[in-house]
Design goal:
heterotrimer, A alpha/beta (287), B alpha/beta (295), C mainly alpha (286), B: 295 residues, alpha/beta, Rossmann fold, 2 domains, 6-stranded mixed sheet, 4-stranded antiparallel sheet, 11 helices, C: 286 residues, mainly alpha, 2 strands
Chain lengths: 287, 295, 286
């Protein structure tokens, strides 16, 4: 596998030596494939948030290494800021990071911090706004005038403006309605394709995982529980259910049909996949 | 049927904002118009709509956080827009119609769980022993009795939301409105809150109105009301509402995946008969269809 | 991590100190503070330190928590101690003298007393008031102690409520600040380098979102409180009644005894010394 980020034997303990001591990660080794969308799932408290915050150097692991394109990101601790431009992190409910007078300037915050010229900043802002679905008419408004969904997009654009090689997204669509979810996640996929970037997507929504991800990493109790392609992970529903996670509803329906003797074949975890599988079944057995 | 606990007649609300940059001093933003809705005691209703559809405005009108700019709202038979409607009546309405909000952090007042739950009953001026009894009962209902002396900020999102619910239950309301109360929770927290909603409805006889955009939650309610662009466009049983999937798609919503699958197959030209609201129904419907196709 | 700061946080529990009436805790704290500032002999300080240790044990607060509470002020403490050591002039020969600096015995004593005062002041009041008293109880205590002022139309309840809510949101805001800092760091913000001007400017991306979200929180909280029938102290009752118990009178006796002992142990020479110095200054001015 051609990996962009390699996590090597990483452990992390919070408040070490106090009564509140908490092992958030315990000897985690995992690779994220270049140019692909990798989903990261697990319960709250499974360690995934800690892992996510480590990928761009916000948290330094108490043990182990994180390699970005083969290089340890903590090799020169003083240059950790440069890592943050290469691994863009969009946190949960990122709209709270908005602060500048206009949307344009807010999206341009990171490029300005990078020391880019005015023209280059403007170019980055426009590009990022397009990928994140922020309309041109919004650029000169105050970010605080926007609706909830628009704010979210503006905040995501603020990260895309760094043109990160890796985009780490923690529940980018939380709290949005179905249309809002599709628009944001669709735009991010487009960014990946155009810039040959990689995405690490954290989400509780198995439906989103099934729709958008190539690979999936499952975390449980501070450890990596399973890794594999979406196919591999969702076709083994039982192992997810064992740790209290779920598969998409349509995957449960397909699996029940198979159990009841309907020989469905194909991608059995998205609505479209099952739809094709049912049609295929009819072609094979129908009159 | 008996008198509804909540009745809206041609209810409308227009936000008026002061705009600094324009000469016209005010900008009027209609959020809700001409809503007719009756809610009966013991009902379990879901209100669906996309972000900004006006569903939260509706919630705020029902317990008088907002005052209607058009039409009427009757709570337990009392007209809230009546000029004789006093401050005491107002607080009576707020007691009868409790509300649980989206962000659990922003509705907890106290630093100890039981003191927070006691906040409502304290405001009602109840005697101490009664407050104590209600706090204990309410914490039992949400299964948080072991956390009575905990600090809320150390609890998980789902647990905080359960405390917020207990704070409302302790006022003994007739109706509880959940205003996207599950939107910020993880799946486990969401499941907990939904379970409590249903428990309150079935066991305590409380009327539940769940405002949400999670279709799986709406599908569990007895009745679903759909709001789009400030108008009530659908009102019926969950089965009825989720049978018109094309309409849901048009307004940016989706149905549960089983219903979506069967809808897609029907669009492909297959005449599939039967229900698809729950996963079990979807499985049975598809099985019956495939059997009929085979033979 | 910022959220490690424990100063101003309540640890729920059932220790004798937790069970004490908040009004008595406030009164005790006042006596305790008075004693600290009256103490000026090693014996008095020893007594104060014993009292403080007694309180920590009684409140079942771990010493790690106490250390953490003191940590943020250590720098200020050392700084003021050094100033005291260098600037205090004593009567006898200096212990150490080089260049313009002369260090006297009095300076060292004063620096030690000063540092002790601040440390036990912070520890004692934290243990009494914040660690073992829920902010709501504390507010109730203040409200009750100040309630005579209601007669002259001072909105005591409103202030008490405002204070308790402020306390309730301290951990939430600390968490939020950390979140915002991380988000801005992820956009290349730099909070730790550059001159004063640059650093002050770097705070804007933190402060603006913090204010915006705080206002939003305030608004939502106000709505939620209204929904729970809050209408000030009109017709309001309380879950927890304040009532003085035997332990409260006992605590009052102990604290009063400590204060009395401290007063009795006062170094009267020093007292006279101060009086002389004040008189000198007055005469000098005349």
């Amino acid at each position: 596998m051609n990996s962009i980020i390699k996590v090597e034997n990483v452990s992390h303990v919070y408040s070490q030596g106090t009564p509140f001591q908490l092992t958030a990660l315990d000897g985690v080794s995992v690779e994220f494939e270049k140019g692909k969308i990798t989903g990261l799932i697990g319960h709250t408290g499974s360690g995934k948030s800690t892992l996510v915050n480590m990928l761009n150097g916000l948290i330094k692991p108490t043990e182990g290494r994180i390699l970005l394109d083969g290089k340890d990101i903590w090799e020169k601790p003083k240059e950790i800021a440069s890592i943050r431009y290469r691994v863009g992190l969009v946190m949960q409910y990122p709209e709270y990071q908005l602060f500048d007078e206009t949307v344009r300037e807010d999206i341009g915050f990171a490029p300005r911090n990078l020391g880019l010229s005015k023209e280059e900043t403007e170019e980055r802002v426009l590009e990022a706004a397009r990928f994140a679905g922020v309309g041109d008419d919004l650029l000169d408004k105050s970010p605080f005038e926007l609706s909830g969904g628009q704010k979210r997009r503006c905040a995501i654009a603020g990260i895309l403006a760094m043109r990160p090689e890796v985009l780490v997204l923690d529940e980018p669509a939380a709290g949005l309605d179905p249309r809002g979810r599709r628009e944001i996640l669709g735009g991010l996929c487009e960014y990946v394709n155009k810039n040959d970037a990689s995405i690490i997507l954290v989400s509780h929504s198995m439906e989103d995982m099934a729709l958008y991800c190539d690979n999936v990493v499952v975390m449980n109790r501070a450890k990596v529980y399973r890794t594999g392609t979406v196919d591999e992970i969702f076709s083994d529903a039982d192992s997810l259910v064992d740790i209290g996670l779920n598969v998409p509803a349509v995957a449960r329906i397909a699996s029940e049909l198979r159990k009841r003797g309907v020989d469905l074949r194909g991608t059995l975890y998205t609505v479209d996949g099952v739809r094709e599988a049912v049609k295929d079944y009819i072609r094979r057995y129908g009159k | 049927m008996s008198e509804p606990i909540i009745r809206c007649e041609h209810l409308g609300f227009t936000y008026t904002e002061d705009e600094e940059n324009t000469d016209t001093a005010r900008v009027e933003i209609p959020a809700l118009s001409d809503v007719n809705l009756s809610v009966y005691r013991g009902e379990y209703i879901a209100v669906l709509g996309h972000n900004g559809s006006g569903k939260s405005t509706l919630a705020k009108l029902l317990n008088l956080i907002l005052v209607p700019t058009e039409g009427k709202v009757y709570i337990d038979g009392k007209d809230v827009t009546d000029e004789n409607f006093s401050e005491d009546d107002l607080f009576d309405v707020r007691r009868k119609v409790g509300m649980v909000f989206q962000n659990p952090d922003n509705q907890l007042v106290a630093t100890v769980v039981e003191e927070d739950v006691a906040f409502g009953p304290e405001n009602l001026g109840l005697p101490r022993e009664e407050i104590r009894r209600r706090v204990t009962d309410a914490l039992n209902v949400v299964s948080m009795q072991n956390y009575a002396n905990h600090a809320p900020h150390k609890l998980s999102g789902g647990q905080k939301q359960r405390i917020a619910i207990a704070g409302i239950i302790a006022m003994k309301p007739d109706v509880i409105i959940f205003d996207e109360s599950t939107a910020m929770l993880d799946p486990l927290g969401r499941a907990e809150v939904v379970r409590i909603m249903e428990k309150l409805n079935r066991e305590e006889g409380i009327t539940v109105i769940n405002i949400t955009h999670y279709m799986e939650e709406a599908a569990r309610a007895d009745r679903v009301v759909v709001i789009n662009d400030g108008k009530l466009i659908l009102d019926g049983s969950a089965k009825e509402v989720f049978s018109d999937i094309s309409l849901l798609h048009r307004i940016g919503l989706e149905a549960p995946q089983g219903a979506e699958l069967i809808h897609a197959l029907r669009k492909d030209g297959f005449g599939i008969a039967g229900d698809s609201l729950t996963e079990e129904e979807s499985v049975e419907t598809l099985l019956a269809f495939l059997e009929s196709y085979k033979s | 991590m910022i959220s490690d700061i424990t100063l101003g946080q309540f640890f729920p529990g059932f220790s004798p100190l937790h069970k004490m009436d908040p009004r008595m805790k406030i009164i005790a704290a006042v006596i305790y503070i008075a004693a600290i500032f009256t103490a000026n002999t090693p014996a008095a300080f020893a007594l104060m330190i014993i009292t403080t240790f007694f309180m920590i044990t009684l409140g079942r607060i771990s010493f790690k928590v106490i250390l953490k509470a003191v940590k943020p002020i250590i720098f200020i403490l050392i700084f003021t101690a050094i100033i005291n050591v260098f600037l205090t002039k004593g009567e006898g020969e200096p212990l150490l003298a080089f260049w313009v600096i002369k260090i006297y015995k009095e300076g060292i004593i004063r620096a030690v007393f000063m540092a002790l005062r601040v440390v036990i002041l912070i520890i004692g009041t934290s243990v009494l008031l914040t660690y073992t008293t829920s902010p709501i109880a504390l507010t109730d205590g203040i409200e009750s102690l100040l309630s005579p002022l209601k007669k002259i139309k001072v909105p005591v309840h409103t202030f008490a409520m405002m204070m308790s809510i402020a306390l309730r949101f301290i951990p939430t805001l600390i968490e939020e600040t950390e979140k915002i800092m991380n988000a801005q760091k992820s956009r290349g913000a730099d909070f730790s380098s550059g001159g004063l001007r640059k650093r002050a400017k770097a705070l804007v991306p933190i402060l603006v979102p913090l204010f915006v979200s705080s206002f939003k929180r305030a608004e939502e909280l106000a709505t939620a409180m209204e929904c729970r029938c809050y209408r000030g102290d009109k017709n309001r009752t309380k879950l927890k009644a304040l009532s003085f118990k035997a332990r409260d009178f006992f605590a009052f006796l102990i604290f009063s005894a400590v204060l009395t002992l401290v007063i009795l142990s006062r170094n009267t020479d020093a007292l006279i010394g101060i009086k002389h110095r004040v008189l000198d200054i007055v005469f000098y001015k005349l």
